[in-house]
């Protein structure tokens, strides 16, 4: 674990920033460890020691980029909250940048912890939506049911089967997960 | 498209065989294009010209390894056929070899056609199961419903959220996809 503000945290911030800057300047495929090290003001061996290789570093950066920036919006009821969330999730993950981050997160991830973190982000957001609905007195499905019924089909189709992946499809998944046949 | 028996098909077979042999002898991470070329009796430039790079070659080999070897078994009714199929799919895909092939298939796949092929294999097998049930006079869900309800959660959890991924979970997914609360 990294102590905030310590040297280790400063190195991490500088290296992540260097990856993001260089990816937008020269493109992700042109990145190398020496290039990133030079921009971050660290030695290549600092990067190898901490991240192992470029793919693991890109995986860590991708997970940071996939971290949600805000709590899910409150639209007054569970169906509206979940459809809005699913639509935004689909927009972000199915975008070229989103797809690229998902692939990076999956790839340089020998122990699966980065992929697990991506999934945990989605589960935390859904917990917020479901707790809010429970607070309104709604009967809600549990979070794993929504992961299976909404997040899994969206992510599976983004990675493997992209035809027909649009907002109405996301809405149908939410309706089914809530045991409704339509909005 | 490759004409069966032609030079192109022979090169492909030799290169795929070289990858499989070398992967079991020296390990997947030690593979290089020159090593594969030497074993296959082709020049490295033949491999670069045809596959672009090692990752695309590994992706093609992975898709071949993920191709189902047999038609889904006939167990007398739709629930039994789908649970048996889902259990076998989970066993194969969640194994260390299966996970490694899925990652390879996703990675060296710039246009998504290899990932699409993996998904098509599953859909074809499910079509067979569903057509057989329809032939018995059963009312069946359509194949995309089973993809969303069974294949997507299994694959999502294999890649992102492996806790609790076992045969009883696969059975519950099948029961839900068939609109049943239990076997």
Word description of this protein:
Two copies of one chain form a homodimer. Chain A has 183 residues and is an all-alpha fold. Chain A has two domains: 46 residues, Orthogonal Bundle (Arc Repressor Mutant, subunit A), CATH 1.10.10; 100 residues, no CATH class. Chain A is 70% helix and 0% strand. Chain A contains nine helices and no strands. The longest helix of chain A has 23 residues. The relative contact order of chain A is 0.11. The model of chain A has no long low-confidence stretch (mean pLDDT 92). At the A-B interface, α6, α7 and α8 of A face α6, α7 and α8 of B.
Quick take:
Chains A, B: Residues 9-69 form the HTH tetR-type domain. Two copies of one chain form a homodimer. By secondary structure, chain A is mostly helical.
Describe the secondary-structure layout.
2 copies of one chain form a homodimer.
Chain A: H1 7-26, H2 33-40, H3 44-51, H4 54-65, H5 78-94, H6 96-107, H7 113-135, H8 143-160, H9 167-177
Helix pairs in contact in A: 1-2, 2-3, 4-6, 5-6, 5-7, 5-8, 5-9, 7-8, 8-9
DNA-binding region (chains A, B): 32-51
Keywords (chains A, B): DNA-binding, Transcription, Transcription regulation
Protein name (chains A, B): TetR/AcrR family transcriptional regulator
